[in-house]
Design brief:
Elements: H1 2-13, E1 20-24, E2 30-35, H2 38-41, H3 48-60, E3 69-74, H4 78-86, E4 91-96, E5 121-123, H5 128-141
Helix pairs in contact: 1-5
């Protein structure tokens, strides 16, 4: 999660919403890492999780990231949670909860839907205070 936090800090420095994501293979190797890049790429789907998942699949050599884990500083939105399911991620560890935009414990609750074919284990609140402070400070400075 520390690596994801560092990526989130880099995103903030680039004037992106500070979210970072890391994908770890079964052997402990980082195979995907990214920060939010929506503004820089002019792409609303360029969330840290989406970019990290794509990078990991290319590095892993498979579109299924079985036995891989996703670490992200913010509860994934509906799009990112659904993508993690499609990539067959084993576990998702996230930092701050997102009552407005989250898709795991809030909002769509993607993994509780009957149409969800793969349900990763999820663990929220990892380094929550630090992840949340980064987001609060980022948005406070812009208001």
């Amino acid at each position: 999660m520390q690596m994801a936090l560092q990526l989130a800090r880099q995103a903030a420095q680039a004037d992106e919403v500070p979210v970072g994501a890391v994908i770890v293979a079964p052997d402990g190797q980082v195979i995907g890492q990214a920060e939010n890049a929506m503004r820089r790429q002019r792409n609303p789907a360029a969330h840290a999780e989406m970019l990290a998942l794509q990078m990991a699949a290319a590095a892993y050599g498979d579109e299924r990231l079985r036995d891989c884990d996703l670490y992200v500083t913010l509860e994934p939105c509906t799009m990112c949670a659904a993508a993690a399911s499609l990539y067959r991620v084993r576990r998702i560890y996230f930092g701050a909860y997102d009552p407005k935009g989250g898709g795991i414990d809030h909002g769509a609750r993607v993994f509780t839907q009957p149409t969800c074919h793969h349900r990763p284990e999820t663990y929220g609140g990892i380094l929550e205070a630090e992840c949340q402070k980064l987001l609060v400070d980022f948005f406070h400075a812009r208001r």
